[in-house]
Amino acid sequence: MKRFKWIARKINSLSIISKLILGFLLILIPLYAFNFAVINIGADKNRKEIHSSLSGTLHSYINLLNTEFQKIESEMTDAAVQIALLHTRISQMQADEDGIPIPSSEKTALIHDMRNELRDLQMNSRFIKNIKVYLPQLRETVSNDPSDPSGFDEKQFRQLALLAKEQSPRLIYQQGKYFC
Question: Which of 25, 39, 49, 157 could lock onto 134 through a cystine, CB 3.0 to 4.6 A?
Fold first, then answer.
């Protein structure tokens, strides 16, 4: 009780301005603490909502990529079979003609057919930018882009073949690009 009397006497001895400032602080400090707590609770809820939203988006994107990758693998297998058949035609022509070079018109037609297969594969997925097929029999590289000037890169062909035998992965990452 003595303590409260001492506080009351101290408050009564203060000037009106001091009493207003003290009253203002007594109201402001609890309001500030309450506001701080409410804002933190709201921020935590927002973080949780954003986290769950981003997690859902990420899972959807991963499912999309998995589905797209399975589709690409299936279509790539079909395209590989078609290209292998075209490549076999070239090999048969070379074998039938006993070392006589294939006429350039035949070779151009076969490469055009292969390029169409690659273009179809590239058009079926928004994730495929460029496709190249190495044809060691012709010492050519066929791309879905007709303006691609790259020739046969034997070193890269051997590296990819070696990596594919060693690891047998779905994708090989080399020189900043992915290879199937």
Answer: 157
Q: What are phi and psi of 140, to 5 degrees?
A: -130, 155
Gyration radius of the chain over CA positions: 37
Of 133, 143, 134, 86, the residue nearest 110 (C-alpha): 86
Secondary-structure percent of the chain, ordered helix, strand, coil, rounded to 5: 70, 10, 20
Task: For residue range 65-76, list pLDDT tens digits in order.
Answer: 888 888 887 887
Contact 141, 111 (CB under 8 A): no
In angstroms, rounded to a whole number, what is the distance separating the alpha carbons of residues 180 and 168?
Answer: 10
Place of tokens 């994730």: 127
Separation of alpha carbons 151 and 142, rounded Å = 8
Residue 92's DSSP bridge partners are none
The DSSP secondary structure of 17-31, one letter per residue, reads: HHHHHHHHHHHHHHH
Range name among 23-32, 39-48, 70-79 with the lowest pLDDT average = 70-79
Tokens describing residue 161: 């073949």
Report pTM: 0.53
* Cα dihedral sign, 138-144-147-152: negative
